[in-house]
Amino acid sequence: MSTAEETTGGEIEPWEEVTPDAARRLLVAAVEAFAERGYHATTTRDIAGRAGMSPAALYIHYKTKEELLHRISRIGHDKALDILRTAARREGTAAERLADAVSSFVRWHAGRRTTARVVQYELDALGPDARAEILALRRQVDAEVRGIVQEGVASGEFDVIDVHGTTLAVLSLCIDVARWFNVDGPRTPEEVGALYADLVLRMVGAEQDARRPAQT
Amino acid sequence: MSTAEETTGGEIEPWEEVTPDAARRLLVAAVEAFAERGYHATTTRDIAGRAGMSPAALYIHYKTKEELLHRISRIGHDKALDILRTAARREGTAAERLADAVSSFVRWHAGRRTTARVVQYELDALGPDARAEILALRRQVDAEVRGIVQEGVASGEFDVIDVHGTTLAVLSLCIDVARWFNVDGPRTPEEVGALYADLVLRMVGAEQDARRPAQT
DNA sequence: GGGCACACTAAGCGCTCGCTCAGCTTCGGC
DNA sequence: GCCGAAGCTGAGCGAGCGCTTAGTGTGCCC
Q: Closest protein residue to D6 using CA and C1' atoms?
């Protein structure tokens, strides 16, 4: 979709694809509320209130509260997948592409923590059909990272015995950033991204010198 | 408290410290329900029903639904801290102790996944006082792991630039096991524990030969 | 064997939830 | 300048929530 090779982890204000304006304001309000309190603890009155509207206005743009979560989750997963695909398909060694994938994926989870939190941790609140759709996207996310790891093993850059398990661990490490990252904490998303790229290269047994020129 | 050096990651059936019997049945039912649906989506009628009792029976043993979560969280964090302390204070090199800590911590998160899920992911549902108490325990957990990493760096076993950040990542990796681990999946808790111990030793830059004799 | 503490239940209170609906305002087309 | 569509609100419905209370059965002490 969009060229996501910008400066700091993505675009400045997302959700621009959601129209009309009132629908976007409601969706942004829902992201904040779900991230703060969780889907089940958030009321439709709270969402509407944050968007400066009455509770009934929500149902003009969305059929149910669950549809809001579904839309958020879908857009968020699309974005996450887009980030990983961009990193996976650029030129360079497997080590460079893995470092790029991890650092940009982590930057997104840290920098857009509210969104990432909803996307990664409120999946169970979706109904069976919506959950199945999202799980399919997650399998693509997994496949993208596993592909890089496999190529690194094939080329001799990496030393990995359990490719599936290590891929799972790498993604798990990145995703969990959304749980603990604190915007007011001592680290910027860029710093965490750089640290994590280095840790992941160590996990896959990349050579020391391959770890050095991992830019930002 | 208890000697937690048993066979596979802990005792066979926990919660034995909760008495009387009815109170324990309610608490176990609450753990299952909270893990499946989340705290806010779980009703007191559901908890009581799983325990084979009427909704009112819950309030004989617990003042509120939140007190149930508090008790679960407290006991679970005590257990997690106990596991890490046992590993941190045994004899051996920093690499051996870190591998032991990670593998037993991961075994607990995978093997007792329902409990771990509630303990690690429902913290925000607690009130301010209870949350503060639990956060103090988490800082102790963090300090225990950071201690091992620091000793490894001091002794020259490990090669770590950012001790705090790396410790955070190690714990994050272990904790997130509770989110994705599937009891019916292809891996046993022991296998995941062994894989993760190896990955963590790579993350801290332990020498190759120090990674080999990680028992269990 | 009478009295009482205790564990538990049936019923339901007050409240808030997700969601609906009748009606109001605004605005473009003609 | 009238009309209908669209966006939004105020009021409120039925349901289910956390929790309470009055009453019941049971077993232990003396």
A: A60
Which amino acid would we find at residue A27?
A: L
pLDDT in tens, B23-57: 999 999 999 999 999 999 999 999 999 999 999 99
Classify domain A66-211 at the CATH class level.
Answer: mainly alpha
List CB contacts (< 8 A) between A117 and chain B. none
Give the C-alpha separation, A187 to A147, whole Å.
Answer: 30
Please give the residue of chain A at the shortest CA–CA distance from B169: A173
Which one of A121, A125, A205 has the shortest CB-CB distance to B202?
Answer: A205
Residue B162, SS3? coil
- How do residues A102-160 score in pLDDT, each as one tens digit? 999 999 999 999 999 999 999 999 999 999 999 999 999 999 999 999 999 999 999 99
Angle between helices B65-88 and B128-154 (to 10 degrees): 10
Q: Take residue A191 and report the two structure tokens written for it.
A: 């710093």
Cis peptide bond upstream of B20, omega within 30: yes
Interface of A with B in 73-102 (CB under 8 A): none
pLDDT of residue B8: 43
Helix (H) or strand (E) holding A58: helix A58-61
Residues of chain B with Cβ-Cβ distance to A121 below 8 Å are 121, 179
Residue of A33, A29, A19 lying closest to A61 (CA atoms): A19
Q: Tell me: the pLDDT tens digits for A4-19?
A: 334 344 445 678 887 7
What pLDDT does B20 receive? 85
Tell whether domain B12-62 is in CATH 1.10.10.60.
yes
Fold of the B64-211 domain: Tetracycline Repressor; domain 2 (1.10.357)
C1'-nearest nucleotide to the CA of B54? C9
Domain ranges of chain A: 66-211
**CA atom of B56 to C1′ atom of C5, Å:** 19
The 10 Å CB-count burial string (b at 16+, else e) for B104-139 is bbbbbbbbbbbbbbbbbbbbebbeeebeeebeebbe
For the record, the structure tokens of B91 come out as 């004899």
- To which H or E segment does residue A196 belong? helix A189-203
Taking only the tens place, the pLDDT of each residue in B147-192 is 999 999 999 999 999 999 999 999 999 999 999 999 999 999 999 9
